[in-house]
């Protein structure tokens, strides 16, 4: 646990430092307020100085946006490969997060923000961080993320195939891209499962919010085991199962990838890009060295019942970005003693696939999301 120190007037203060993405403690902290200009704040933040805000809360948000505009002025050259564009995009994102993450706010004991026009963030922080442990300093950017996650948790996200809403928790990847959910909802179940769905079992590996587990249960699967390595995801999936009145058919287990059991259908929607995540929420998108994908493939045979199938839901965006080839994926499937029964494809529907200003537009516009139906080579 790190402690952050600063001085106001002639008085020295300290508080616990907290960063969800593991940002290092600022080397130096100065107090800033409504008189601080964006150019000055940007310059100090780039130098590594933490800026503890003591002015109006809304003005702090304006300052954060102004600092962001100064970062965004530099645009990469158009004459780059997709792999180079992705690397530049990741480095630019990391730089942006570092600089903007140096505008700080103090949360008093009990998660109150003693700034003019500050919102009541106590409930949101309690959901994200658990019971308070005294005053702590976090980045304003992180606090805004906590507030936004609280609103998403309250409102939920509409999932048409369920006819209801799923409520994500802070730090849990939300099902904002519906095409992968639709693939699991509409792909024909394995023959062994169709014969007796109520007596069959399915696993949802890396369940997140539990949305795919809920889809499988609604399709009539008698027992669904939802796993994840994240305690936040496990709590989120369990809460959503109760909300949907499916707690008697969805068992939330973990932290783990595979449960100690066998199933007729095993579904996995791993992170699609083999790159290192820089924050907990990025673990739903980035997976260093495709660890979860490889874990799913190598462990599938040992957990499938005779006649069962494994469903791998995966985008080919990594292939378009030069991060993984189709040959590497097929080799990994073959090395795990699996064969492809079928592959069902769909095009993405999210707005970024149509945004020509996105630096990764060429790859996103060509992206295909697929459900790979896999079974063992000896069946």
Automatic annotation (TrEMBL):
Please state every residue range assigned to the domain named Methyltransferase small.
200-315
Alphabetically sorted, this entry's keywords are: Methyltransferase, Transferase
One Gene Ontology term from the biological process aspect of the record = methylation
Q: Which residues form a coiled coil?
A: none
Q: Where is this region: Disordered?
A: 1-20
MF GO annotations: nucleic acid binding; protein-glutamine N-methyltransferase activity
Under SUPFAM superfamilies, the record lists: S-adenosyl-L-methionine-dependent methyltransferases
InterPro entries linked: DNA_methylase_N6_adenine_CS, N5-glutamine_MTase, SAM-dependent_MTases_sf, Small_mtfrase_dom
**Gene3D superfamilies named among the record's database cross-references:** Vaccinia Virus protein VP39 (3.40.50.150)
Q: Which PANTHER family match?
A: HEMK METHYLTRANSFERASE, MTRF1L RELEASE FACTOR GLUTAMINE METHYLTRANSFERASE
The name on file for this protein is: Methylase
Name the species this protein comes from.
Streptomyces griseochromogenes
